[in-house]
Each structure stands twice: as structure tokens, then as C-alpha cells.
């Protein structure tokens, strides 16, 4: 269907008037059906937004329509709303305004338009008495409204905003303390959004974490738009926010599950690669050497080949042991968990590698005050600490003695272990996707095998946890485990 046919169908089917908007406000076009809808002839009205706001629209609808109109013209922010327009007879008609992208069909128009669809009311229906329906809608959708007035330097909340944020009905919001309404790690995001909206009129539609009067942190979808005065100056911000905590947390859990599945697939690929490549390489070399031994008569040459067989056999045995360790992790993940004190697990690990710690002059500083214990498989926790500590010692910086900071903490009902060192660090630009790969090494240590971090990641993820790494060359590495 052609573009003009779509457009004409919309006009015919809905009997709608419309405005055409252009960069130059003097070129605005009001359609003939718009004039007819309110009973005027084209010559009787001035087709400008200023005239419309002054003489035609109901005074209670001026502010919101003006804000929506200016946002549509300046920022291409589509909108739809109900407004009341006075007719030539002096009564008001109710219209639903909608921009191009808010129509039920895509008219593929390159011109920005605002359509006006008349809403027919029952004879006894009062269009001004809609507060009850507003409250019902707000409560059913957990949507609160707010307004920030720059001139008066005040914040205004509706009843639902106070309910969602768990403040009493008589609470007066503070503009000075507005950062306190957001979770600590979301305050910069909120500040950036409000600044851009206030300074340059950039509207926002985002997901952000807020905090209630009782300290409960939850997710909301926040939408805000600048408020303009008659001179088209920004005098405030008006917006709504909706409690989406349940949906967002389910989404995050789903994403986390997908990440774990992706990681598991990666581990399976690694496992398959080791089985198909490394084992096959060892067995092929063994077969070749056995064939050579059978074909050689010189005893001395046979002895040399037998020594090579021993070396290949040792490598094959090591590879099989590593594969067995991986299999064992997923076989043993259903072992009984116990409440373990982090300090006890650390003491056990340090006693086992005491000589290594002493010879390397390593200092280990531990802080378990925030989270002293965890319900976990003891062998896994000890193995995780052992691998991360020995890793830090192996890859210590040659110009300084190693210092390892270990701490645990709780955040938003999640439990974390952090191990930070001052070692050589890892070039994350080069190795970011390979840090936890099997047989991946990033330095030239002779004893580097590339199995420790792979095993650690397997242990953590087998119990539905995650492990991440932050590192900078010459400045050390930090591993963060979320249990």
C-alpha cells in the first residue's frame, strides 16, 4: 500500500484532523478537518501553537500539552494524551492527540504530524471528573507521578509515589536530598539524566534503582520530560516511575542463567577440545614412537625413544588428571554444604602453603567482618582460596613484595568474596576472553600450566555462582566471586 493511501485511510477511518509541523513554526499547517472538528473556518483562527495555547485548549491541559508538543518538535519524542478544545459554540470537546508513531498503523510519513481524534461522550459524562480513574490506574500499575519545579525549588509527589517509596501521606519531598531516593550505585545515573533534561531538554526513559524510606532497594522504570513556560524556557521536569522490581529481578536472573549456560557451553567446548586435540596428540605420538622402536635395531636409539615414551606418558597422565578434576567438580557439586567460617578456610590454606608464602615474602590481609561465614562445600572454598592466592604469588611483581587483600561482604542480599593483589596484572585488552580458559597462561613462568583459574571458575559456577576479574598491567589483579 502506498504511503498516501495509508495516510488517507487513517484520516477517512478516524475522521481525524491533524497538524503538520515543520522546523519553521510559521509554516505549521492545520488541516481542514481540524477546523471543522471545532466549528471554525480557517480564516477565523491563527494556526500557531501560541494561539492554540492561549485561546483554544482548556487551561488545565495547557502545561502537559505544551511540554509534549515542544518535546515532539525539539527531540522527536512521540506522545499521546487527552485534551479539551473549545468549540466556536463555547463548549469543550474531548480529543485524543497522537503523533505518527502512536497511531495504530504505520503511515510511513516523513512529516511530523499530531492527530486529533474526537472522543464522543455520553450526555451525562463529565470529562473533568477523572481523578478516581487516575487513582485506580496508578494503583493497579504501581505508577507514581512527580514534578520538580525549578522556580520554586521544590519537588512534588502524588499519593502513589509516596506509597511506592514507603513514605507517609504527609511527607514533603526534599529537592536537596533527592539523591537519597536512589540506590548508591544509581545516583550518578540519576544526576546525569536530570542534568541533561534540565539543561538541554533531553527526556529520559530508563531503568534505575531507587530506595524506599525503609531502606528497601528496588528497580523502577523512570520517565521524565522537561516542563516549559510560555517563553519555551525549561522551568521543571515532570515524570512518572513504575515499580518493576519483580520483572527486573526475574530478567536479571534469566540473564544470569543464560550467562552460566553460555559459560558451561564454553567449558564443554574446552573439555571437548582437550579430549579431541591434546589426548589425540599424545596417543598419536605414542603410536609413532612405538612404531619407530619396533623398526629400530640399535639398542641405544631404542633407549632414547623409550625415554621420550616416558615423557609423553607423563604428559598424557597429567592431562587425564586435569580432565578428571573437571569431571569430579560436577560430580561432587551435590555434596553436603556446611557453614564455613572464611577465616578457618583461609587458615587451612595458609598452613598448607606456608613455605611458599614465607619464601615469597607475601603479606595476606583479610577482612571478614562484613561476612564471616557461608554455607558452601568446604573443599571448594579451600580450593578457590588456594588457587587465587597461589596465582597471586606466582605472578607477583618483580619490583615489590606481594600483598594480597582478601575480603568478604554482602550487597543487595548477595554474598561476595574479593581477592586483590599488587602483582604483574593481566592485559585485559588481549586476554579478557581467555582468562579462565583451560591451559591459558599470560606470563612466562616455567611452572605456569593454565589450569587453576579454569578449575576455580568450574567450582564457582557449578554452584550457580559467578567469578569476574579486573586487572591492569603492573598494577595488580582483583578477582570477585559472587556466591
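Q: What amino acid sequence fits the structure above?
A:
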Amino acid at each position: 500500500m502506498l504511503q498516501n493511501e495509508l495516510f488517507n485511510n487513517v484520516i477517512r477511518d478516524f475522521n481525524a484532523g491533524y497538524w503538520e509541523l515543520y522546523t519553521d513554526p510559521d509554516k505549521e499547517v492545520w488541516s481542514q478537518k481540524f477546523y471543522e472538528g471545532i466549528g471554525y473556518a480557517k480564516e477565523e483562527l491563527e494556526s500557531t501553537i501560541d494561539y492554540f495555547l492561549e485561546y483554544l485548549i482548556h487551561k488545565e491541559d495547557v502545561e502537559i500539552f505544551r511540554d509534549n508538543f515542544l518535546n515532539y518538535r525539539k527531540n522527536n519524542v512521540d506522545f499521546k494524551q487527552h485534551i479539551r478544545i473549545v468549540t466556536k459554540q463555547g463548549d469543550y470537546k474531548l480529543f485524543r492527540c497522537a503523533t505518527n508513531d502512536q497511531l495504530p498503523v504505520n503511515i510511513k510519513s516523513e512529516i511530523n504530524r499530531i492527530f486529533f481524534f474526537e472522543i464522543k461522550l455520553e450526555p451525562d459524562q463529565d470529562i473533568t471528573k477523572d481523578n478516581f480513574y487516575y487513582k485506580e490506574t496508578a494503583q493497579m500499575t504501581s505508577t507514581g507521578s512527580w514534578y520538580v519545579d525549578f522556580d520554586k525549588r521544590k519537588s512534588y509527589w502524588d499519593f502513589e509515589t509516596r506509597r511506592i517509596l514507603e513514605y507517609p501521606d504527609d511527607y514533603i519531598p526534599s529537592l536537596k536530598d533527592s539523591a537519597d531516593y536512589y540506590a548508591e550505585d544509581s545516583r550518578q545515573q540519576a544526576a546525569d539524566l536530570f542534568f541533561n533534561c534540565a539543561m538541554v531538554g533531553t527526556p529520559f526513559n530508563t531503568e534505575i534503582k531507587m530506595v524506599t524510606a525503609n531502606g528497601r532497594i528496588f528497580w523502577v522504570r523512570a520517565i521524565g520530560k522537561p516542563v516549559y513556560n510560555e517563553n519555551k524556557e525549561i522551568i521543571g521536569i515532570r515524570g512518572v516511575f513504575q515499580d518493576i522490581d519483580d520483572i527486573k529481578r526475574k530478567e536479571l536472573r534469566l540473564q544470569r542463567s543464560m550467562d552460566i549456560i553460555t559459560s558451561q557451553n564454553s567449558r564443554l567446548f574446552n573439555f571437548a577440545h582437550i579430549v579431541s586435540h591434546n589426548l589425540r596428540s599424545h596417543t598419536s605420538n605414542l603410536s609413532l614412537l612405538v612404531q619407530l622402536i619396533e623398526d629400530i635395531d640399535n639398542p641405544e636409539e631404542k633407549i632414547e625413544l623409550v625415554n621420550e615414551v616416558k615423557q609423553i606418558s607423563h604428559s598424557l597422565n597429567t592431562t587425564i588428571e586435569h580432565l578428571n578434576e573437571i569431571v569430579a567438580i560436577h560430580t561432587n557439586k551435590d555434596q553436603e554444604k556446611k557453614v564455613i567460617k572464611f577465616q578457618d578456610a583461609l587458615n587451612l590454606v595458609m598452613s598448607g602453603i606456608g613455605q611458599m608464602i614465607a619464601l615469597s615474602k607475601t603479606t595476606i590481609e583479610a577482612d571478614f567482618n562484613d561476612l564471616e561465614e557461608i554455607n558452601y562445600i568446604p573443599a571448594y572454598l579451600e580450593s578457590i582460596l588456594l588457587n587465587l592466592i597461589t596465582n597471586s604469588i606466582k605472578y607477583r611483581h618483580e619490583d615489590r613484595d606481594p600483598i594480597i587483600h582478601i575480603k568478604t561482604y554482602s550487597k543487595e542480599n548477595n554474598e561476595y568474596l574479593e581477592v586483590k593483589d599488587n602483582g604483574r596484572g593481566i592485559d585485559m585488552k588481549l586476554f579478557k576472553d581467555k582468562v579462565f580458559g583451560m591451559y591459558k597462561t599470560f606470563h612466562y613462568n616455567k611452572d605456569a600450566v593454565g589450569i587453576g583459574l579454569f578449575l576455580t571458575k568450574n567450582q564457582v559456577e557449578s554452584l550457580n555462582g559467578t567469578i569476574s576479574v579486573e586487572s591492569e598491567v603492573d598494577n595488580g589483579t582483583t578477582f570477585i566471586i559472587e556466591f
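Q: And what stands out in the fold?
A: The first helix runs from residue 3 to 14.
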